[in-house]
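quick one before i forget lol
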Amino acid sequence: MRRKELSEEFRDKVVDRHRLGEGYKKISHTLSIPLGTVRSIIKKWKVYGTTETLPRSGRPSKISSWAKRILALELTMRPTASLKELQSSMAEMGENVHESTIARSFANCSRYGRSERRRTLQKTNSDLQSRAEFAEKHLDIEMGKDPRKPRGKMSSYAYFVQTCREEHKKKHPEASVNFSEFSKKCSERWKTMSAKEKGKFEDLAKLDKVRYEREMRSYIPPKGEKKKRFKDPNAPKRPSSAFFIFCADFRPQVKGETPGLSIGDVAKKLGEKWNNLTAEDKVPYEKKAAKLKEKYEKDITAYRNKGKVPVSMPAKAAAPAKDDDDDDDDDEDEDDDDDDDEDDE
């Protein structure tokens, strides 16, 4: 049974006796209260300087507010995660709590765990469709993906991260990896690397790009899927517009005036400058753009005609004529044979 709370006067008596030099046991025996109560009253008085009942919000939470937010985000990203997986993830963040504590924190937010009902799979259309939808949504299974499609090309940074993973796995084979921290460290390390150190990974990326382009040329997509158009690197580039020519001239000036601007802010300022120009000021850029467009049209025409073999009609008509000549020769040979026969007779 819970004891009645001691009054403030009674607690003051405990403090007064302590200040007079009485020991904890003597105060407990004289006032007929437990020794632990005497200790807690005196400790509170030493810390706060009063024996009043101080307000509080309740029992402190075992999981901090920021950890709850991260946990909720992780559950949203991985709805099939188990309590053990969430517990290990919390331990990596420095929050060592029991599985029941994690489950209770979700229950307070009206989010509850789910377990699969143990039953034989009914091979009805609705059951199969629901399972396929779940797999596509949560297990990253791409339905209807062509397995023969070439693997995408990897960038130099992707090769660098792959190398870092292999190194980490060799050094710590059994350690779990916090991917957010790992990717952050990789990014910082990549920024500090020199061009010579990055060269190895850039060479790998170039080789993979050649492999990808070669495989995509021979790849035939299934019906209903459009094949990605291959872009020839030797094809003439489209000409710049008058605005882009203006941007190329004034971009260094804008960056020099305000060096801290982002790419978007620089583009915004260039757009404002272009709009403030008069029609006469825009004429030189429009003339340059027209010349570039004219040159592009000539280049693209020559590029499209390159490699085409012209078909001459007389060449096709010559074949029958040759046959006629052969027939005439055959007829002459036959006539000669007939004359020889007559002479023999």
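fyi Residues 61-113+131-145 form one domain.
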